[in-house]
Amino acid sequence: MRILIDFLYLLAAAAFAPAALYRLIRHNRYRAGWPQRLGRIARNAPAKKCIWLHAVSVGEVNAAKTVVNELAAKFGDFEIVVSTATDTGFARATAAFGEEFGVFYFPFDFSWIMSRAFRNIRPSLCLLMELEVWPNFVRIAKKAGIPVVVVNGRISDRSFKSYSRVRPLIKTMFSKVTMVLAQTEEYARRFRRLGCNNVIVSGSLKYDTAQTADKVEGADLLAKQLGLQYPPVPPSPHTNETNNSRSNAQTPDGESIINIEDPAAIGRNQSSIINNQSSIINSKSPPLWVLGGTGNDEEALLLDVYKQLKADPLFADLRLAVIPRKPERFEEVAQLIKSRGHNLIRYSQIKAAPPPDHTSPDRKPVPQGGGGKSPGSASDPKSIINIEDPAVIGRNQQSIINSIVLGDTMGDLRKFYSLATIIFVGRSLVPMGGSDMMEAAALGKCTIFGPHAFNFKQAVDALLAEQGAIMAKNKQDLLQIMKKCLSDPAYAQKTAQNGKKVIIKNQGATKKTIDQIAKLLLAPHADRLLIPA
Q1: What confidence tens digit (pLDDT) does each residue in 155-186 have?
Q2: Which H or E run contains 309?
Q3: The pLDDT of residue 371
Q4: Is the predicted pLDDT of residue 240 greater than 50, yes or no?
Q5: How far apart are CA 196 and CA 176, in angstroms?
Q6: d(CA 108, CA 446)
Q7: 3-state class of 121 per DSSP?
Q8: Angle at CA 374, nearest 5°, toward 372 and 379?
Q9: Per-residue DSSP letters for 240-308?
Q10: Are 110 and 517 in contact (CB under 8 A)?
Q11: What does the alpha-carbon distance between residue 513 and residue 515 come to, in Å, rounded to a whole number?
Q12: Which end of the chain is more exposed for a tag (fewer CB within 10 A), N or C?
């Protein structure tokens, strides 16, 4: 069986090689961590017993945070190491755990590579987040008597159908798993049908990792950078008078402000951005719609909805921030936004601006002569100026207010969410499985997602059952939902409050998970270290 699996891996590697080479050249992926991927892994404290936790990417890394922290607090005599498979997952794991725990790329599951990895790591326990079960991994662990636990386990509808087609082979693999801690009873039944013998329902860790704090660290600075109020004030019902005063950016003389590109602007004028918000925004910030974790082909649909909303005088002051799920798509989404006739500002360039120089005099924005239209409007394509140079931001804060913000940085999604009036959770208007909507709901935000959030079925069902989120069936349905939420703040606020209650109600999975893991760590076999032949 081992030889057959290795042969199939070789065939798969050959088939995937052209795509991998393209991504390496085009998106700079797969360049890091090759010694680790080949099993050459060094521990920080090799004399200690070891817990190896594997989380494939960002979502799984985030879900693992409470478990890792609790294990470190309760079992200080163990070294914890964390592996991940993607560049974004590695970056997130390094940020979350890198100062205290070893972080490395997950080795390829070829038998000789995985054997080398086990010899170097010598784990006493292996934890696999959600569904990262690999044939050679579990075979080697089983042979050495090392417990393997699937934590926060789930099997989506699509995965279950795929596994069911080759159930005899899958059962051989899953039967080697020591324990599965499943999110729901439905997932538990699926694991049992695929050959897992010891399955316990522990709940979803993502409820525990979803932070319900009223404020998010760093959100106040982001609000100042974007010309928003923090904490955000729930919007009042819209009127034409209110929106007309917000939608046309003007100087005190009544002339429209044009965006300016000046290499020296940020350093000289960032202080005016941060210290003079009242001259730019009204006492209440305009509503901000945040599109979080968006996917391929989805941004185009969402920009269509945004355009239709902006065309309505009732919603002309609506602002938009787009945060794609994958960093390699930042440039693609930037080009899409510009091609639709919108002003664009990249948050990476706002964030990279030099610290405020409080000695610099404020500079008056340069007006656009003879204008009745606000700059960068789709109706006046010649006036569109996409601000993508760090130099421009400090000179003209109004350019930010008139632009769609592209969230092209890592680790700032929660900050954007905390400023949002309404959040759309991406990869769900198209059939991609959805993104984590619990993070949005936990912050007490009106949360919307599409019909294709099948990777988060338990959270979707729980939120919809308690009216704690809204599902849009399609683009037109989303448009109507957005109009309802913007026109009726009480409705949006009630949805947000219900969502936060659902998150709090479903917390507790971390304790159940740690209790089960503790039983294995305290068992006699936990004192052994693995040295495979």
Answers
A1: 988 899 999 999 988 999 999 999 999 999 99
A2: helix 298-311
A3: 34
A4: no
A5: 8
A6: 41
A7: helix
A8: 90
A9: HHHHHHHHS-B-TTSPBBPP---TTHHHHHHHHHHH-GGGTS-SSPPPEEEEEEE-TTHHHHHHHHHHH
A10: no
A11: 5
A12: C
